[in-house]
Every structure is written in structure tokens, then in C-alpha cells.
Amino acid sequence: MNVRLYVWQRATAAVMAPLVLIHIAVIFYATRKGMTAADILSRTQGSIVWASYYGLFVAAASIHAAIGVRNVLTEWSPLNNRHAGRLALLFGLLLAALGTRAVFAVVLS
Amino acid sequence: MVAELSVSLWRGGMDGCYETYSVPQRESQTVLDVVTFVQRYIDPTLSYRFACRVGVCGSCAMTVNGRPRWTCRTHVAKVAGSGRLEIGPLENLPVIKDLTTDMQPFFEKWQKAQGVFAPTKTRHEEIEQIRPDSPARRLADAAIECINCGVCYAACDTVRWNQDYFGPAALTRAWTLVNDERDAGGSARLQAVAGAGGCHSCHSHQSCHELCPQALNPTAAIAGLKRRTTAAYLKGEIKA
Amino acid sequence: MIARGTMHRGSALWIAAMVHRLSGLALAIFLPLHFLALGLAIDGEAKLESFLRWTDQPLVKFAEGGLIFLLTVHLLGGLRVLVIENLDWRDGQKQLATIAAAISAIVAFIFLARVL
Known about the structure:
The structure holds 3 protein chains of 3 kinds.
Chain A: H1 3-33, H2 37-44, H3 48-76, H4 81-107
Chain B: E1 4-11, E2 17-24, H1 31-42, E3 61-64, E4 67-70, H2 76-79, E5 84-88, E6 95-97, E7 100-101, H3 104-112, H4 135-143, H5 151-155, H6 157-161, H7 168-178, H8 186-192, H9 207-211, H10 218-234
Parallel strand pairs in B: 1-5
Antiparallel strand pairs in B: 1-2, 3-4, 3-5, 6-7
Helix pairs in contact in B: 3-7, 4-7, 7-10
Chain C: H1 12-39, H2 45-54, H3 58-86, H4 93-115
Helix pairs in contact in C: 1-3, 3-4
């Protein structure tokens, strides 16, 4: 861990705090209403708002989770810092790729 | 009929084992008294450290029933619930023999964190006027009473998991110097605590704060370093 | 085996830090699966719909409640860390950590009450 990784991790954490609160609210709303896939997609498709919200969420989560995983690997696994960093980076890229695909899936009609 | 304590002491080096001795229990006995009894009357080959015996030097720190503490300030009555004591050397440090550890890594990290005063004046210049109630001096004074006993270092999980990590004591000393107007360490010291092993590895478990016999708060000092290094990094004064 | 220091590991703050780390790991493992599930919508709503109906089972709802607990506890624990690191020191950390865990459990419980 160094100051650069620390700044990115704490900054993405701060960005995500309100995003997570909104997400929990959305979960409560959607499950209460018993929404079907069609209900959900009719709201998200073509929506710049949802695209921006989820896009930002995916970017921040990918960075935050990757740095967190890096910390866990350097402290709890036998990997050295460089290998832990590489593995964490791959994980972050995986999250970003799958996440972006998911955003496209629900936003593009 | 004197009650007897069952005392397990670590014997040997890193690959040693616990050996058990029977020690008569006495009133107001400290754990240091118990260790001393074993060495004087049962096994003279036992190695252990102490100096002042009155809780001002920090030399007698050991792991007592799973917790690092000063043995001269630990009453047996308080910790030996069922008449049993398990005493080992401080953790996270190489063991020399029995209850003595090699403090060298602890002090090397002190140096790496630049916990060393960098003077700015000579004897020929006027003495600096430091107000004790200035905000910076208050912060420094709250953290200055460290006597390098190693309890915080032994208690810290991040030290255990990350061999680069400087540890609470070294970083707390760096923090006092960051707040010392006379010191010239400046951004070089911030750079030293902003890399691998620096303040950003701290997870705020606060074991250090909970166990420090001097009631210091390394977690707070390290949080202060996190703020200063972040500001310096964002201003371009230090690099990642 | 060397001397073991274990007593302080039961402290509320140590547990809070461990819960924070483990919840983060669990969420990190869950996230790719979550993205894959949402990605089912790429071919239209039918696949996503059948997946959502699969999640109607009580067992899955319990797991979702668990995930909501993990998310909330990770968020609140993270906020506590941000407070320690960026604001002036305050005592009462143990109380804050306990409150965070309690709120997370309540939120997860409310979710389960509504969906089961």
C-alpha cells in the first residue's frame, strides 16, 4: 500500500457511499413491487441517468475492489507485492469488463 | 500451605517450547516476580530482560496469557485466573533465547520511518520559542512519551501480516517530528512514511492504542500522517 | 510453535476490522456473478426474467438478505474508517462499530421481512 493507492481507494469509497445508499433503496423498491425483468428494463433502457449512475458505480467499484483485494493478497497470501498487484489488476479489469457489459445489457434497448 | 502457580515459560529460540514450573503464590506478586523466582531458585539458565522493575523503562515487556504487557506492572492476581500463567517473548520479533527478543528490526524501522530529529539551528543561534499550547506542540506532546517498549509492535496484526510495515511506534515518533517546528525533516519524512510499509498500511485495529502502557494513541497519530501525506501527495510535494 | 498473542483479538474493534475485510472479500467474489446475471438481459428480457423467478425461492432470498447485511456493514464500517482517518480523533469507536453492525442487521432483517 502507498499513498497513491490509498488516495484512490478512499476516494472511490467516498464516491460510492451515496451510490450504495441509492442502490439499497432501489433494491427495497424493486423487491417490494415484485418487479419483473420487463418492469426493470422498461425503466433502465435508453436512460442516460441509469447509464451514468451504474457506469460510475462500476468504475468506482472496480478500482476499490481491486485495491482491497491487493491488500488482502499482500497480507494474507504468500504472493509478493508485484504479483499481488498484477492479480489484483486482472481482477479489477474483469470487474470493469463484466460490469460495463451488464450496464450495456440493461441500458441499451 | 502456600498456593502454587502453574507457570509455563517459553524456552529456547524460535523453535522452542513451553516448559512448566511451580511457583509459590505471594501477595502483590507481579509477573516479573514470578519470572525472577524461576531464574533464581529453579532454573538459572532462564534468559529474560528487566531493568527498573517499577514501570518506567519498558524493558520487561513479554506476552502474558496471550497479551503483550509490562510484566513488572502486571499483578499476578489480575491475570492468573485459575492459578495458571503462560509467558512468552514479545511477538513479531526474532527470539534470541527464552523470553528475550531481538529489538533490532523494531529500531531499524524507526530509522526507516525517519523517526529522527533533523536539526535546523546551531548553538550560535537564538533558541526557538516553542509555546506548549500551540496546536502543533499539543499534537506532538500527546504522542511523545513513547519509551520503545515494543508492546504496540507485538500487538499489531498489520506488523504480523506485512513485514514491510514500520509499526505503530516508529510512525508515532515520525508524527511527533512532523509537528515539531524546529525539525527540518519536511517532505522527505512524509515521503518516507508514504511508501510501502508506511502509514497507509494501518487498518485502525487499535490494538496499539488499547495496549500501550503509556496510554498513547498510535492509531490517531497514524491517521494524522495519512492526512498530511495525502495533502502533500495531492500538492505534488511527494510521489507515490 | 512460538508464543501466541491472542487476547486482544476478541476486542470489538478488531472484530469490526475483520468483518469489514471479510465482507469486502465476499462482495468482491459476489460482484462478477451479479454482473453476469444482469448481463443476461443482453439477449432480451426472457433470460433475465427466468433468472429473477429463480431468485424468488426462500433460500435465495435468505442469501440476498445476507448480501444486504454484508453490503451495509461494509459501507458503515468504511464510513467509520473514513471518520477516523479524516476527522479529529473521537473516542467511542467501539460503540460506533457496534451500532454499525446493529443497523446492518436491522436493514437486512427488514429486507427479509418484506420479501419472505
